[in-house]
Design goal:
The complex is a heterotrimer of chains A (274), B (356) and C (264). Chain A is built from 12 helices and 2 strands, in the order αββααααααααααα. By secondary structure, chain A is mainly alpha-helical. Chain A has 2 domains: 41 residues, no CATH class; 212 residues, MetI-like fold (Orthogonal Bundle). Chain B folds into 2 domains: 159 residues, D-Maltodextrin-Binding Protein, domain 2 (3-Layer(aba) Sandwich), CATH 3.40.190.10; 151 residues, D-Maltodextrin-Binding Protein, domain 2 (3-Layer(aba) Sandwich). In chain B, strands 4, 5, 6, 7, 8 and 9 form a 6-stranded mixed β-sheet that branches. In chain B, strands 2-1-3 form a 3-stranded parallel β-sheet. The chains are: A mainly alpha (274), B alpha/beta (356), C mainly alpha (264). Chains in contact: A-B, A-C, B-C.
Chain lengths: 274, 356, 264
């Protein structure tokens, strides 16, 4: 079917609804309204470079990195266990693993609000055991916990799907050649799982660095991350110019990290969610 | 395979039929009757459900679509960016002035609001709407400190208690720009409406200093947190305090000696509204003493409606939390809109405080 | 030994994953509003939920937007995928990059850019803009689901059908479509799910009282802890669980066709 023209409406749609909006964002980012007219100015970007906002950027990246690392440390073993030899209940286990992920993202975050509160379940249990009460909600810990909880499946599933496809015979060959478990892991399994790891890291880091809901609900509005800053500028302050500039910086950040990740996964064989 | 597609298609069709049968809440198409949809945009937890139900019963040709916001600024942006169909909104004093200046609200035909006669005169002709052309008062109140008597040992009479190291992580500040900046300015002895950049800078520094002591910046969640005793004190609006105090006897409300903000929320009709007549009917309905009474009972704030006040429990009227004697409140100010340039400074300060 | 440790670890992880959900469910029956203490069993939050007109209307909007946008995106996306499949290299890679754009863009940027577009064109934010936004982010996923199936297609079948005298459209419906149908269905389900769960993009592109379930939950959560939300979560959890189980049962029966939603 040489009917390439069928996709032209789609291309038109994408241009209107994807390219044009992004161009508009760039337009707003590079302009400012002075006395009713739009003038070209780098002021917005200069403002982003102020220490206050650099702090925001740094905080977002830091929290996202920490969450990604925690997800990786917790998630890799899970992927390994799930991909392991116990085939009988594998698909049920994976299904069970995935179910919480299908629940509404906001509800999952809200759930932690109730658990972590000073008068919430965790503190009640601690109190019952005679342990001191902890201040968990509205802290760094709460935000990281929220991120890890929401994004863990995104780390586990890609690694799992890649691990599953590893040719068993490679592992057996290594073992036959006398390697112990650790070496087999280090030299065979882990390197082969790298595409999945890269995929997982990308799929966790990106939403982690751009989220604003988790920091707003679990952070008590005092953690301003890039996402919060952008939402704030657009929905409260109504300074679309500055907000657009910050959005552009965020996009650059994302593209940068994806570029870095791509170097580790040249063939693009990373496992996805499906 | 074909069976699967077929059954799936049938399922889809069934769902589509059910959905259309239920009828969409937003449109009155195919109803036969001409239902006008009134889009009401209000603060969270700011109207009793039964009032809306009563309204729809009395005016069956009007359907109310109810949406909420948490601060004036949120509302302003939503209306400005194209909440085209909002018919009634409830901004506060300074925001009303801003909206009038920017042409965002329509003049209300007061002839269509006969119940306006019940509004107490002291709430008319205020600075933000001197000729009473654009707004009808809804509720009023103050800003103060809601605190837990068992957790706070000393008398709460100054805003500076919110900067007390002793209450680290037990303090809730308001997530509302003007309120939190205003409180800080008052603590420093300045006006809540100052345009002095040095004073504002000082306030900013103070707020940044305060950050480690703050548990969270909340608006509506604050009263829940206080009732659950998760914090020792919070900056809240008077009505929220009243409701919270009703649910937990350990709570008390105080207006510090430096003075505070007293505010008025009024009903306005955004200029992009397409149903002015129905909006006016709605506004009039809310000024009905009975309806106003229901709202006041549910929300806790003070009413500007003289008839409603007569119907209230004498205990309530003398309750200083709900009905402070305005003449007795020293150093109390109404928020004013400082003009676009200075407003940008307020915005920037708030952003920088939060970002730090 | 290793197995036991592995099992134990898995149990911990599952406990971590399910604890919040289960707490929400249990506390939805709690007679008190407290988050830590049990006050007795009650169904009052469920009845309050069903009387909440805002929740019901957002449920309606959520479902209709999801259904409509998924349908439209599936049709448009399938057509687009077919077109793309037959494109020359250069054009193809340009279009594919275009397709990936919404996928890799953070939701917040997509949402904001669309909001800017709509306001710029003076389109009022409401049901229409919400629908447009959902279709926009759904189509790429449909394309990404259908393209692989097209690649697996035997090119000559279509030509054979034409040779046998079939009109192109007939050949399409009888030859190509059945072969790519698994991809189309996956694409549809994916689009439907993404639409249901979306919050950020909807948040920025809706207005005039049109609210989705996610947005309603967000505003309820900002008002404070409310057990009605718990009741809502329980119901949603049950529905999702049921759907997933049904889908997986059917896909394991059809696993050869690869019709599984999740190729587990």
């Amino acid at each position: 079917m040489k009917k390439g023209w069928i996709s032209y409406p789609y291309i038109l749609w994408m241009i209107i609804f994807t390219i044009v909006p992004l161009l508009l964002v760039m337009y707003y980012g590079f302009t400012k309204t002075e006395n009713g007219t739009m003038v070209l100015t780098p002021d917005n970007f200069i403002r982003v470079m102020e220490p206050t906002y650099l702090k925001v950027l740094w905080r977002s990246v830091l929290l996202a990195l920490v969450s990604t690392v925690v997800c990786f440390i917790i998630g890799y073993p899970v992927a390994m266990i799930l991909a392991g030899r116990d085939i009988s209940r594998k698909s049920t286990l994976v299904l069970l693993f995935v179910i919480p992920m299908w629940m509404n993202f906001l509800l999952r975050t809200y759930a932690w609000m109730t658990l972590l509160d000073r008068k919430g379940l965790i503190n009640t249990l601690l109190g019952a055991l005679g342990l001191p009460q902890l201040n968990l909600l509205y802290t760094d810990f709460a935000v990281i916990l929220g991120m890890v909880y929401n994004f863990l499946p995104f780390m586990v599933l890609p690694i799992y799907s890649v691990l599953r496809k590893i040719d068993r015979s490679l592992i057996e060959a290594a073992e036959d050649l006398g390697s112990d478990t650790v070496t087999v892991f280090r030299k065979v399994i882990f390197p082969l799982s790298l595409p999945g790891v890269v995929s997982g890291i990308t799929m966790v880091f990106m939403p982690a660095v751009t989220t604003f809901i988790i920091s707003k609900l679990l952070g008590g509005s005092q953690y301003m991350l890039i996402g919060n800053l952008i939402e704030d500028q657009f929905m409260r302050v109504y300074d679309w110019n500055f907000g657009s500039a910050v959005s552009i910086i965020m996009m650059l950040l994302i593209l940068l990290s994806m570029g870095v990740m791509a170097r580790y996964d040249k063939e693009g064989t990373g496992g996805g969610l499906f | 395979m074909k069976k699967r597609i077929a059954s799936f298609a049938v399922l889809l069709l069934a769902v589509a039929v059910i959905l259309t049968a239920c009828g969409s809440p937003g449109t009155g198409k195919g109803d036969g009757s001409e239902k006008v949809v009134l889009n009401v945009f209000n603060w969270g937890d700011y109207m009793c459900d039964t009032v809306l139900e009563a309204f729809e019963k009395e005016y069956p040709h009007i359907k109310v679509n109810y949406e909420t916001y948490t601060t004036n600024e949120d509302m302003y942006v939503k209306i400005k960016t194209g909440g085209s169909a909002y018919d009634v909104a409830f901004p506060s004093d300074y925001m009303i002035k801003r909206m009038i200046d920017e042409g965002l609200v329509k003049e209300i035909n007061m002839d269509n609001i006969p119940n306006y006669k019940y509004i107490d005169d002291q709430f008319k002709n205020l600075s933000y709407d001197p000729d009473n052309k654009y707004s009808v008062p809804y509720l009023w109140g103050t800003v103060g400190i809601l605190y837990n008597k068992t957790m706070v040992t000393e008398p709460v009479d100054s805003w500076s208690i919110l900067w007390d190291e002793k209450y680290k992580k037990q303090i809730i500040m308001s997530d509302s720009e003007r309120d939190s900046i205003g409180v800080t300015l008052k603590m420093l002895g300045y006006s809540m409406n100052t345009k002095n950049i040095d004073e504002l800078e000082e306030a900013k520094q103070k707020m940044i200093e305060q950050k480690p002591l703050v548990l969270a910046y909340l608006v509506d969640e604050a009263k829940d947190m206080m009732v659950a005793e998760s914090a020792a004190m919070a900056v809240v609006w008077s009505g929220d305090a009243l409701i919270a105090m009703g649910e937990n006897e350990n709570l008390a409300y105080a207006i510090p000696k430096e003075g505070t903000n007293y505010w008025f929320d009024c009903m306005v009709i955004p200029s992009t509204s397409k149903h002015q007549k129905e909006a006016e009917i709605f506004i009039n309905f809310l000024c009905d003493p009975e309806m106003s009474l229901r709202n006041v009972d549910y929300i806790g704030y003070a009413t500007p409606n003289t008839e409603t006040m007569k119907m209230l429990d004498p205990e309530v009227i003398t309750n200083s939390t709900a009905y402070p004697d305005l003449n007795q409140l020293e150093n109390c100010e109404i928020f004013e809109y400082p003009g676009d340039e200075v407003n940008k400074i307020y915005n920037r300060i708030w952003t920088e405080v939060k970002a730090n | 030994m290793k197995k036991a440790f592995g099992r134990f670890y898995l149990v911990l992880i599952f406990a971590f994953l399910y604890a919040p959900v289960l707490t929400l469910i249990v506390f939805s029956f709690n007679d008190s509003r407290s988050r830590g203490n049990w006050g007795g069993f009650t169904l009052k939050w469920y009845s309050a939920l069903f009387r909440d007109r805002h929740v019901l209307s957002s449920l309606y909007y959520t479902l209709s937007i999801a259904l409509l946008s998924a349908l439209i995106a599936t049709v448009a996306g399938t057509a687009a995928a077919i077109g793309i499949h037959n494109m020359k290299k250069i054009l193809k890679s340009f279009v594919m990059n275009l397709t990936y754009l919404p996928v890799i863009s953070p939701d917040i940027v997509t949402g904001i850019s669309l909001m800017i577009l709509f306001v710029f064109v003076r389109l009022n934010l409401g049901f229409t803009t919400l629908l447009l936004a959902h279709i926009t982010f759904n189509i790429p996923y449909v394309i990404l689901s259908v393209l692989p199936k097209l690649k697996q297609l035997n090119k000559h079948m279509y030509e054979a059908a034409l040779d046998l005298g079939a009109k192109p459209l007939y050949a399409f419906f009888r030859v190509i479509l059945p072969e790519i149908m698994p991809g189309v269905v996956t694409g549809f389900l994916l689009a439907f799910t993404l639409s249901l769960d979306d919050f950020i993009i909807s948040f920025f592109t809706t207005g005039s009282g049109v609210s989705t379930l996610s947005i309603t939950i967000y505003s309820m959560a900002r008002l404070g802890i409310n057990p009605k939300i718990n009741a809502l979560s329980t119901l949603m959890f049950i529905v999702v669980l049921a759907l997933l189980l049904i889908v997986n049962k059917r896909s394991s029966a059809n696993s050869k066709n690869g019709t599984a939603v999740m190729n587990i």
